[in-house]
Amino acid sequence: MPWLSALKDTARSGLTVERARLEPLVTLRAAGGVALVVALLLAFGSPALAVSSAFGAFAAGLATFQQSWRPRPVLALGVAAGLGLSTFLGYLAAYSHVLFVLLLAVWTLLAGMAWAVGPVSGLVATQTVAVMLVTVTLPTSVAGAAEHAALISVGGVVQALLIVLFPIRPWGRQRDALADALAAEADYARRLRHDPVARFDPQPLMEARSAAELTPRQARNRPRELAGPRGLAERLRPVLAALADPVVGAPAEGPQRDRVRDLLAAAASVLDAVARAIRWGRPVRLPPEALAVLQVPEEGPMLDGAARRSAYRLIALLGDVVEESDEPVRTARRAGERRPLLRPTVPRLVPVALRAVRREATWSSPVARHAVRVAVVASAGYVLGAALPLGHGYWAPMASVMVMRPDFAQTYSRGVARFAGTVVGVLLAAALATLLHPGVYVSAALAVACVGLLYLLMGTGYVVASACIGAYVVFLLGMVGEGWSQTVQARVALTLLGGLLAMAAYAVFPVWETRRLRDRLADWLAANGAYCLAVLDAYARPADVRPRRVRDTLLDSRAARTAWEETAERALKEPVRHRGLSRTAERASDAALATMGRVTMLMEAHIPDRDAQPSPYAGKFADALGAALPDAVAAVRERRAPDWTGPRAVVADWYAAEGDRGVAVRGAELLVDALDELAAALSPGPGGRNRAARRT
Fold this sequence. Notes:
By secondary structure, the protein is mainly alpha-helical.
């Protein structure tokens, strides 16, 4: 994509305002925390102390709105600790500009590396850099440093106490994640009625699994209806796909296909009812017409073979889902109930975070390069801002730090949104200040109102958030007597400077996702291959089947697919040409590996019982595929076409020996076809790409 087109796309993305689900009660509680801190400091302190301490409550409240599965009080306390430490260190170094710039560079570098742990950690670390920049405008002394650090930390403590004292919809996020997963399964069932090979986005199931990871304390208090349905939803997906597939399920047309469509519609209705019940903590109310369809008919169209087995499994699993979700109160752990997925506590999270940072501490890592970029830009922005006669020079590096992200699209879209939103916000606040001439208390009330709007509209887009923050700053500084005219000029100019520095830094020192496409594709192929080998091993040696191995390889396959899709989405917005993987080859490869995963899932749905006869050809096919897989993964990375001669020969022998009988041989044929599609997509030269384009 040319640079001009990329800039237009990112600007349009940054200025987009989307509809989002609002949380007015949570917003009221978080804004109330900011108001409480400001009111206390105005009553017993000074406006300057109220301004500085408001940042702690503001940042802690902001963190509690992020998509994190940890308890919100823990997030608020974590932000309070980080802000307090950064404030204290900033005060200690503020007496020397050189020492402060060095501290800022080191602290920002560490904050940039925090993105290796996760986006919430990266956001919290970014907030600590912002508060460190603010501290240099205040008096410097060790006692003053400790006082202001404590005041800023108190803001986070207040937010945590409010969350504990006024809980709003406990377990609401976990309920929503599980309900979204079940609703996605319902939508998948409906789409399968019309498209038997419809693709399924596993992201809702992955989110539900992340939400199910609990600390030991959470695990003791979790409602029981959040424990069982997620695992059953995971088992439902392959059964739905196997029932609808015309190769291993019912015929494409005829009475059996009509029966399958009815079963899929009934399953969707049941899953939607369960999703609503879990979301709002109510009993499950099933539609009678769906229950009638799920009964085994005495007459009319009947299924046979693999489709019949899938139908029986579907009916049984739906019954289990309803039973597991229809007990809103958990009294005691049942005998044999599976233990929850445990999330490490905060102390145990430290070595996990250190390992994540160590993994990303390489020159080619996007996170490491982001850390270097943001450290250099923050230091340069601070020096330039201090040199300009505008006052509040820290706004320039703060704008850079807040907009910079490890990828091109987010950095540029946020840069545009930050500037546009800031201009709108400060102009509206200036107009309001001109009309009202607010004093200290009115300015404080208007600042809290802006914070409330920010919390309420946070999900609508970064440009809206930037407008709210811009207005918030105007009213906040109005509390200490600064005129709005000076604030507007400095804020706009320094925000523009910070945004331009951030964009220039990425252009000079980029990490293009386009160049990583082949590595992500190879990772997905390797993960899909491991998943396929685990399923084939269950057919070759049913008595030794290891469900845990199948499950783990499936999760790895999903993670690899998600990483590929995220990289491909970011690469599509970058102003660089492809490096050995054209857009056509990318789409064809994606379709081939998605088909490979779907076929493996269909085979998983029909894994034989432990007392079934072993399939020798399944073992031979697994051996041939396992032998070819490492070289194929290397070929994808090295811009060569994979060679699947060995697996193809075994499938030909298998079909000649057994014919078109059984799910395993049909699945093996489809797998080889998908692998051939991948080889055609990645074949060097226009011939291979043209063949892939025609097949897709």
